[in-house]
């Protein structure tokens, strides 16, 4: 290849550059796919991001090339190399959720879906080239790492001795290491925002109901959301354009009708997106947990950059409210309320696999995984029995639980959030996504985030964006948080900050 060949610098390869390159004949979809497969061969043995490779990827790329040569219309992500988080159903691949008991290769059973999950189906319709499925911890139980996965730990390509963020650890590592251009992630408690921030990437945690999450191994139908991780705000927005919107398989997505901007999320991006915007800052009114000294310094610089981009900063807009008092961590720093429905949700997920699936009910699931009872002492979800609505929900896992305490909590969060955003005329908040830098890869320390729990319970959207680095080299990121359905505004603000600062560094 010549030195000017764009496939020699995969980190700079964006969705727009791929569109241009395919249109102009600079490269083919097959060559683009091959370049990323070479990157996978080079790095995945060390990083352990991708656990199943898609043998049909090159043929998908060749079909795109044939259609382009024939002048046929192709989808908005034509030829774009993508990865899919393991818990998302994809025909032809087992959905293992990181657990050895759910993978025949490690002595368990295989959950083989009869149909793609809606988000995977939408990526196929958009003509993305799916390169494979990515690593997660057991049942996506942690937002810090994938150390207990049957496939082994995922390594953070930015700073290998620190946690990669979880549970979408593999998706983030594949994007950061240029093994793909964008990846699908999913969050119940930080699993988009944490790995994106840990690896210096852009992550979109959508409003619950914007993107369908049917066909995705659940932890909570009341909290689970699917969203993209990418290297740039624009690429994340273009991926969200494909993912967002109503699906009959997920009735809650009907709420997204009329909430998606005309022309899509990428169309409104502007370098002036912060000018004149009132932006709320982190403080004890939101959460009474202090920032580390180095985080304070990095956040001070970020605040100066926001002001230089035209933002009007509002100190601790939640001061004087009862917002912080609503938080009640269940285990460590994690507030799990709303996850009490997991048994019912798993039953719904298993039924969707089809009548020939190895497991079709929660009772089947419990029997197949009894050797490592997820809810029992020492299990990865052993904290759930402490939740107020859990025992009632478990009395009959075939019936949808009422969850009265969770509903009251969500309502209390939303009353305060709506009032604060209205009173201060705020389009967004901009917080450090973590209170301190990343902990070691191995050990008991977890990521100390600022927005997990509050966002997941309330269902609020957020966008992470690179904002610098600690002295150790660990990424520092801002997270822009907004009211329900404010993804377009958050992306505009994150894009303006990204354009003004350019803090992201290539990981490899």
Task: Summarize the helices and strands and which ones pair or pack.
Elements: H1 15-24, H2 29-47, E1 50-53, H3 57-69, E2 81-85, H4 118-125, E3 129-134, H5 169-176, E4 182-187, H6 193-198, E5 202-205, E6 225-230, H7 233-243, E7 278-280, H8 293-308, E8 312-314, H9 342-352, H10 362-368, H11 390-394, H12 404-423, E9 428-432, H13 454-458, E10 462-469, E11 475-481, H14 487-501
Parallel strand pairs: 2-3, 2-4, 7-8, 7-9
Antiparallel strand pairs: 1-3, 4-6, 5-6, 5-10, 9-11, 10-11
CATH architecture: Alpha-Beta Complex
N- and C-termini, Cα separation: 20 Å
Given this structure, which CATH class is correct? Alpha Beta
**What is the helix fraction of residues, given as a range?**
25-40%
Overview of the molecule:
This protein is an alpha/beta fold. It has a single domain (10-498), classed as Amidase signature (AS) domain (Amidase signature (AS) enzymes, Alpha-Beta Complex). The protein contains 14 helices and eleven strands. It has helices spanning 15-24, 29-47, 57-69, 118-125, 169-176, 193-198, 233-243, 293-308, 342-352, 362-368, 390-394, 404-423, 454-458, 487-501, and strands spanning 50-53, 81-85, 129-134, 182-187, 202-205, 225-230, 278-280, 312-314, 428-432, 462-469, 475-481. The chain has an eleven-stranded mixed beta sheet, with helices on both faces. β7, α8 and β8 (312-314) form a beta-alpha-beta unit. α2 (29-47) packs antiparallel against α3 (57-69). The longest helix is centred in the C-terminal third of the chain and has 20 residues, at 404-423. It is globular. Pfam families: Amidase. This is Amidase. Residues 32-491 form the Amidase domain. InterPro entries: Amidase_dom (IPR023631), AS_sf (IPR036928).
């Amino acid at each position: 290849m010549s030195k000017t060949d764009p496939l020699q610098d995969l980190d700079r390869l964006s969705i727009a550059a791929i569109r241009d390159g395919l249109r102009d004949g600079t490269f083919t979809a097959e060559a683009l796919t091959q370049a990323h497969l070479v990157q996978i061969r080079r790095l995945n043995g060390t990083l352990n991001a991708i656990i199943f490779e898609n043998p049909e990827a090159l043929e998908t790329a060749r079909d795109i090339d044939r259609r382009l040569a024939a002048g046929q219309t192709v989808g908005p992500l034509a030829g774009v190399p993508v990865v899919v988080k393991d818990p998302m159903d994809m025909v032809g691949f087992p959905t293992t959720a990181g657990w050895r008991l759910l993978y025949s290769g490690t002595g368990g059973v295989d959950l083989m879906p009869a149909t793609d999950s809606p988000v995977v189906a939408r990526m196929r319709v958009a003509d993305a080239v799916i390169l494979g499925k990515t690593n997660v911890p057991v049942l996506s139980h942690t937002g810090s790492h994938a150390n207990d996965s049957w496939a082994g730990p995922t390594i953070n390509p930015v700073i290998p001795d620190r946690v990669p963020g979880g549970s979408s650890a593999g998706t983030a590592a594949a994007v950061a290491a240029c093994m793909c251009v964008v990846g699908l992630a999913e969050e119940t408690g930080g699993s988009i925002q944490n790995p994106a921030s840990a690896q210096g990437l852009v992550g979109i945690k959508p409003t619950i109901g914007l993107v369908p999450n049917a066909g995705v191994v659940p932890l909570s139908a009341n909290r689970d959301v699917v969203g993209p991780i990418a290297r740039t705000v624009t690429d994340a927005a273009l991926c969200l354009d494909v993912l967002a919107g109503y699906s009959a398989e997920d009735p809650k997505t009907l709420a997204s009708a009329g909430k998606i901007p005309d022309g899509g999320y990428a169309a409104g991006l502007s370098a002036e997106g912060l000018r004149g915007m009132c932006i709320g800052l982190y403080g004890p009114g939101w959460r009474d947990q202090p920032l580390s000294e180095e985080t304070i310094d990095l956040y001070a610089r970020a605040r100066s950059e926001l002001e230089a981009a035209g933002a009007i900063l509002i100190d601790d807009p939640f001061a004087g409210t009862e917002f912080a008092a609503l938080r009640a961590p269940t285990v460590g720093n994690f507030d799990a309320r709303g996850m009490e429905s997991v048994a019912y949700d798993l039953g719904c997920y298993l039924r969707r696999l089809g009548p020939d699936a190895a497991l079709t009910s929660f009772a089947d699931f419990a029997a197949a995984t009894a050797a490592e009872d997820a809810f029992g002492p020492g299990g990865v979800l052993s904290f759930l029995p402490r939740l107020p609505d859990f025992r009632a929900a478990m009395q009959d896992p075939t019936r949808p639980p009422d969850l009265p305490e969770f509903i009251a909590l969500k309502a209390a969060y939303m009353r305060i959030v709506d009032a604060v955003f209205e009173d201060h005329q705020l389009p967004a908040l901009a917080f450090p996504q973590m209170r301190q830098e990343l902990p070691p890869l191995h050990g008991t320390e977890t990521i100390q985030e600022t927005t997990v729990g509050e966002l997941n319970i309330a269902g609020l959207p957020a966008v992470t964006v690179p904002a610098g680095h600690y002295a150790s080299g660990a990424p520092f990121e801002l997270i822009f948080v907004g009211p329900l359905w404010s993804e377009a505004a958050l992306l505009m603000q994150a894009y303006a900050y990204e354009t003004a600062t350019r803090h992201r560094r290539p990981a490899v």
